[in-house]
Amino acid sequence: NNAAITDSVLMQKVNDNYTGQIPGNDTESFYKYYIKATDSLGISVASPEHAPLDLYSFAAASDFIKPVINHVSPVVSPLVQWPARIIAEVSDTSGIDYVRVDWFKNTEVTVKTFYLVNTTGNTYTALFKSDTSEVSASIKFIIP
What's the CA gap between 141 and 97, in Å, rounded? Predict the structure, then answer.
């Protein structure tokens, strides 16, 4: 059931942690691995505990599932409360890279962009990136 380990990667110390990258081959694959640490006295330990008989594993596969966005658009935002805060709950099975808002005023052809910041869990938020001179009319925006 456990295939032989055919490659190894040295890990590099970054602050108080060690990190390494398992090289891929740009194809869908199933990876099995374990981690081994050796101290300055030559004493080693492996994780999982019974490695290489027991191994960690993961699949590297194409992501065909779109992220899910839950958002309620502000209907009216008085100028004294501008800029409006945009809040969205965004989730995806393989993680979120970024959440972007594209917007334009009335029928302008120039699309402006700003990014939402991940504040907690799946919540992304930012103040609308415009000044009050740009909100004298209707603003349309999408979270692509």
Answer: 20
